[in-house]
Specification:
By secondary structure, the protein is an alpha/beta fold. Helices cover about 20% and strands about 25% of the residues. It has one domain.
Length: about 290
């Protein structure tokens, strides 16, 4: 198959049927598992963006044409901004989109028995065009055994110490239904994390519209897209189980020699199911039962 660029692919538009996942492949960590997970939960199409062609063996046999591997420099700073905004402009209005990275796994309430399409259909019925997601840092328990900090079988995460702060505008006024969320490795090792990258909230699921733009800090230019719920009641939220921060801390010269491991008293094994995340308050089922 020809390794086309994202721009070449988008000249012909994107598939009309969503939801569509945009996955930025930064390295070779858990690529096959990332693709398989997002196929399994029901994304109709996956755009796998990578600097080099993906090996054929990482494409799940069940892909059936649902995965397109496209050239994009996903290692450059702010690679997500150019990619996501390009897809937004090419997609039909109201198409549901998701974006994430390799070694990141989307979870939402009742994901084991309901597809992502079913969940988003309910969310849209509640007049919501976007969904808040919390990025939950996963990590291997032993960096001597797993020096890249990635272990799917032994993954751990922090079960406590997540918090939210008021989000204010430039004049110091608190923004309605917007909060800055913190926790996980970004909180415990904040001295190694730039201040503008310490938040764990990401609007990862959203509907395309012509005037929508993704900003570098994972927020959107339309304020309502950045809210955690509607004015009337709680809404669904999702979680992204991610090795991305652990990988960076284990590899970057400024942190790798100062961090001997990520495991601590509040570490707990990740069970790879939505119920565990709901039980810990790391995502919200809202009115969806």
């Amino acid at each position: 198959m020809t390794f086309r660029s994202l721009a070449q692919y988008l000249r012909h538009g994107v598939p009309a049927a969503g939801p569509i996942a945009i996955l930025l492949i930064e390295d070779d960590a858990a690529v096959a598992q990332t693709l398989a997970h997002h196929l399994r939960i029901g994304f109709r199409h996956i755009l796998a963006l990578s600097p080099e062609p993906l090996p054929a063996e990482v494409i799940p046999p069940a892909a059936e044409g649902r995965i397109v591997n496209l050239h994009h420099d996903s290692r450059q700073p702010l690679a997500h901004v150019a990619a996501v905004n390009a897809v937004i402009q090419a997609a039909a209005p109201r198409t549901w989109l998701y974006y994430g990275y390799n070694a990141e796994f989307l979870f939402y309430p009742f994901a084991e028995s309901r597809s992502v399409g079913e969940m988003l259909a309910f969310h849209a019925e509640e007049r919501r065009q976007a969904m808040l997601s919390y990025v939950i840092d996963l990590y291997a328990p032993d960096l001597q055994r797993w020096p890249d900090a990635v272990s799917l079988d032994q993954a751990m995460f922090d079960r406590l110490d997540y918090y939210a702060l008021a989000r204010c505008d430039r004049d110091g006024r608190q923004l309605e239904r917007q909060l800055d969320f913190h926790g996980g490795l970004r909180w415990r090792f904040e001295e190694h994390i730039p201040a503008d990258r310490r938040r764990i909230d990401r609007i990862a699921l959203f509907q395309a519209r012509p005037d929508l733009r993704l900003l570098p800090d994972h927020r959107f230019n339309i304020a309502e897209y950045n809210t955690y719920a509607c004015p009337w009641h709680h809404n669904l939220t999702a979680a992204i189980a991610s090795f991305r921060v652990a990988k960076a801390l284990a590899r970057n010269p400024g942190s790798r020699w100062q961090i001997s491991g990520f495991r601590w008293r509040n570490s707990t094994p990740f069970q790879w199911n939505s119920q565990q995340l709901m039980d810990l308050g790391l995502m919200e089922p809202g009115q969806w039962f």
